[in-house]
Prior knowledge:
Elements lengths: L29 H18 L2 H10 L4 H27 L3 H30 L15
Helix pairs in contact: 1-2, 1-3, 1-4, 2-3, 3-4
Amino acid sequence: MGDPAPGLGGLPTAAPSTAGVGLGQGKTSEADEKLFAMLAHLLGIVSSFIGALVIWQIKKEESPFITDQAKEALNFQITLAIGYVALMLLSMIPVVGCFTSIVMLLVGVAGLVFSIIGGLDANKGKAYRYPFALRLVK
């Protein structure tokens, strides 16, 4: 278990380690690494998980930093997609249905905000970890 995460009530998280993942360790220039890592996060806003998946598949042999950040963005976008599907199913229940639209809006805003934060951190060369994401792609 990792250190307690701020904003999560001091609950420990099991985020993967970013040790050994940094800029300049691959075949790609540092500026390109930052650009593609940033795009992996920001493309999720318009393309869900497709953008991060494409960047990961194209750049996985060239840069450990891009690979790490694309997988992180991919995992987050998959988590959001699972959340949306679950909320759509819950919206079919009459009593709960009226609240799911509010929760969907909150999930969308959280996805937008965290994707932008991830893109900004990646553009600075820092490995970003989303506060909540299923780690499906390792």
